[in-house]
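Database export, one record per block. Field names are fixed; values are copied verbatim from the stored entry.
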Amino acid sequence: MLPKPGTHRRMRNVTTMSAPSSVGNASILVVDDERDIVRAVTRHLERAALRVTGLTNPLEAREMFSPGRFAVIVSDHMMPGLQGLELLREAVSLAPQTRRVLLTGFANQDEAIEAFNQGVLHRFLRKPWTEAELVNVVQEEAAAFHQQTRAHTEHQDLERLLSKRTQLMHTAMALMQDSDRDALEAAQPGVGAETSRDAAVLIADVVGYSRLMHEDAAATVETLTAFQMVAIEAIVRHGGRLVNAPGDSLLAEFPAPTQALLAAQATQRELARRNAALPDARQMRLRMGIAYGTLLVRLGEIFGDPVNIAARLQQRAEPGGVCIAEAAWRMLPAAQQRGLNALGPQQFKNIAEPVHTYIWHPHTAGRKA
């Protein structure tokens, strides 16, 4: 029976039972103005090893709403002072991640269906419900809360990693572009924002990046950032300039192909060493392409056939290896040439003439095909 108006008594259940892993530290809030129903629901849920807070006053329950405090709110509908649907509507804004379950009679079923369609409810149970039905619904919603919370946390972690990576890439590119402009001005006073020069181009790209991101986005971004920093350090050490680092790619230019190849080889050797410490499924390998020719340089960006050819070449490289165009290969010293294997002429999309190519891989360096 309903208590007299104004005499809603607080009934809180305190339990030392541990929560299941699907719920984490959040508990279940049960709200019903009938104390016996709160006791019965609490008893059923505790038998399923869930932590429960039970209240008979919906106004007091509303004061307890906060993000992440409760995994699931289970509320009766017909309560004096504040009906269940209105209570759960307030939970949408005050505790948006909390899952919301309504216990309702047949007469209120249409209201419950409408609230469900509006996103106010996640589930509703029509009276009389069984213990098995109740426990099953609450466990499923608690698991959904945990999954949603974990996904939200992973998303925040990923955002932080992406922001960190972006800052690192921007800083590296800005420093090298400033250095490049200073060197160009010193060599050719009066040179404007646009010029042309002969240079080697290196392009690198991650193999299977989409799969890695799908399986573990945060770990992939962290590994990518570390591996790209290895490549950037090698580029700088061998006299190159990082031009851009879009997504999982790197674009760099060098005064000569010998420097580009040394940077590529140093990078691939170090990444092979680091990959050896990772599980096979989490290893990250780069393909690299090197071309040489005349570039148009405009505000730090580079354009021209060498960029297009290097992009096609990296697609033909082995994972963890390097593919180099003949124009660049001819400018290498004999010792470097001997470490490469001829792949033969390759036809590339949007490249008119076949490109004679050579390949290198740390595990097959110097072996002739």
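Remark 1: The longest strand covers residues 194-206.
Remark 2: Confidence is low (pLDDT under 50) at residues 1-24, 184-192.
End of record.
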